Amino acid sequence: MLSVILDGLELALDPGALLAGAIGVLLGIFFGALPGLTSTMGVALLIPLTFTLDPIVALSAILGLYVSGVYAGSLTATLIGTPGTAAAAATLLEGPQMRDKGETRKALSMTTIASFIGGLFSCIVLILVAPQLAKVALSFGPPEYFALGFFGISIVAGISSDSLLKGVIAALIGLWISTIGLDPNTGVPRMTFGSTNLLNGIELVPALVGLFAISEVLQRLEKIMDPKKGKIKINKIGVRFNELRENAFNFLRSSVIGTFIGIIPATGSGIASFVAYNESKRFAKDKERYGTGHLPGLVATETANNAVTGGALVPLLTLGIPGDVITAVILGALMMQGLTPGPELFAKNSDIVSGLFITLVIVNFFLLLIGLLAIKLFPYLLKIKEGLLMPVIVSLCIIGSYAINNSTFDVIITLVFGLLGYALIKGGFPLAPLLLALILAPIIEKNFRNSMVMSEQSLSIFFTRPISLVFILITFAVFASIIYKGIKSVKANQT
Amino acid sequence: MKAKVDLVAGVLLILFVAYGLYLAFQLNATATTIYGPGFFPKFVLSALGIFSIILLINTLKSMKHKKDKADASNTETVTDYKIVKKILYLIILMIAYVIAFVYFGFFIPTIIFLILAEIIFGIKKAYVIILSSVLSPAIMYFLFVNLFNIPLP
Fold first, then answer.
1. What backbone torsions phi and psi does residue A181 show, to the nearest 5 degrees?
2. Beta pairing, strands A181-182 & A189-190
3. Interface predicted TM-score of the whole assembly (ipTM), two decimals
4. B31 touching A, CB under 8 A?
5. Max Cα separation, chain B?
6. Does the distance separating the beta carbons of B117 and A49 come in below 8 Å?
7. What does pTM read for this prediction?
8. N or C: which end of chain B has fewer CB within 10 A?
């Protein structure tokens, strides 16, 4: 045990890893804060740049970007009233109001501190919970994995923002795309249209770079925002120690809420912030001050927001099930490093897992340090012209997808998926379910067919094994609640 | 507008499903089990077909509904013609860039792409365009080739 921790420390404290972590945090601030860029895009672009590095060095940069991207979206929300990321929507409840009251610095400093506390708390939970969960998962056989993947697909419901029907269709398209290539069980080529390039299937990283970066650039072209004219003033008054003490319980409560919502797949930062905000308001004596630039409200949203990060890594690392888009992209990054998330990872690569945990703690400290030191610079960041950035992003996508396998075919995949992604967005189909399905499909199909071999073609195997049965029941419960909600909303529309 | 998009999407999806199923049914010819290589694609495509039909029916219903009511709330703005043109330009430019990247390598195509794309994105100052289009490929080249040892074409 101790030797594993020491191995992890050695990996995580490597100067290269530390530097990569700091760069990751800086990039995260950049990608998170600028409304046209997303942290998902940032992580997707980092994968081809870092895959030649040692796993922990690469993961330092990626985790740094992930953690600080979630945080930085809130900075933009406070400064210009537009959330830099979807996760920062709840920040709009208090952030801009604090700015209008002339408390910009206080708001930004508190965002930084709260994000750090939430992030650190969730790291600790991750470190405590993940290895135990992985031990349980080690006993999983094909039926359990199938049931888990099946449950993962029901997540689609949670992430299809507007239209459930379209979310399901997007997921099915993703499932179909995953069948391209050699059949994993029999080696029969499927849907390859005679192309040898397609025999290995669609490479995940080029596909997601296209889906989440190229399509985003095309979307931004529709609504280029000119940088805000005028200067955003940052005054001297920061956060007082008293204010930290008064919010101690708020920090704890919001951290717990954020972490646990993060662990549940398909919930994510946005929901966690709103729940934490409501709870903070419910417990408060001065409810009427919420919404007017009240500090405890900001504490709640920002703590919960970042507490999701560690929580979301729990199912990803232990079971290999990503809960949202950005963890799905991180899964892609892990696989590029030859590390397949799941219980095996904890058994075989315990040094890397422990290094990863320590790295996550370190990048949270970087976030605190860089965030507090750089407060004055944030307004300048928002003055960068999108028109200069977007073409460079496209170029990075193309070069990046080429670099992974030195394959021009992958470049074409990126472009095709970029255009497909844009077409789907325009048709109102969400992309997140497609990506999740793309990742979960191999788990589902392979384990289903292996289960069928185990049970000699009897479906009862999924209902006679307790863990598998539990997952199947939860999935049906999720589906039932969705159908119930759907019927209710249809009825509400008719009246 | 939205209904029309859904209608087109529904029809395209159903055509796609039909073609996909045609391919999938050729897969099981040699399989000895019902859960062979063709099983999963067939299952997925069938589900996709069912949901696409639901989408189509829903859309047709809502279109009829709207006609009856002569819906006045249909305020959805038709995307500006100028923006559509810009997006088409960018898509064509990206396709051309990928082709040029494959045949002529990294540097020249990237510089030309950046210049044109920045113009599409509405950057006006010539010196900004030229400076950024030459500098950023240089930085990218340094990052990939010198720092991370990833060869570029």
1. 115, -170
2. antiparallel
3. 0.88
4. yes
5. 68
6. no
7. 0.86
8. N
Q: Quick check: A411 and B117 CB within 8 A?
A: no
**Backbone φ, ψ for residue A189 (5° rounding):** -70, 135
Cα(A97)–Cα(A292) distance, integer angstroms: 6
Residues 124-143 of B with CB under 8 A from A: 128, 132, 136-137, 140, 143
Closest chain A C-alpha to B60 CA, distance in angstroms: 15
pLDDT band per the 50, 70, 90 thresholds, residue A121: very high
Angle at A45 between CA A14 and CA A430, to 5 degrees: 130
Q: Is B3 on the interface with A (CB under 8 A)?
A: no
Is 80 exceeded by the pLDDT of residue B77? Answer: no
A179/B40 Cβ within 8 A: yes
> Testing the interface with A: which of B34, B50, B51, B121 to mutate, by most A Cβ within 10 A?
B121
Query: Closest Cα to residue A281, out of A137, A93, A459?
Result: A93
Question: What residues in B contact A452, CB-CB < 8 Å?
Answer: 33, 35
pLDDT confidence band for A225 (50 / 70 / 90): low
Check if the beta carbon of residue B89 is closer than 8 Å to that of residue B120.
yes
Quote the crossing angle between the two packed helices A350-373 and A55-80, to the nearest 10°: 30
What φ, ψ does residue A396 adopt, rounded to 5°? -65, -35
Give me the residue label for tokens 């955003």. Answer: A232
CA distance B118 to chain A (A): 6
Vertex A29 angle, CA A28 and A30, to 5°: 90
How would DSSP label each residue in A74-123?
HHHHHHHSS-SSGGGGGGGGTHHHHHHTT-HHHHHHHHHHHHHHHHHHHH
CB A186 within 8 A of CB B31: yes
CA-nearest of A111, A78, A398, A51 to B100 is A398
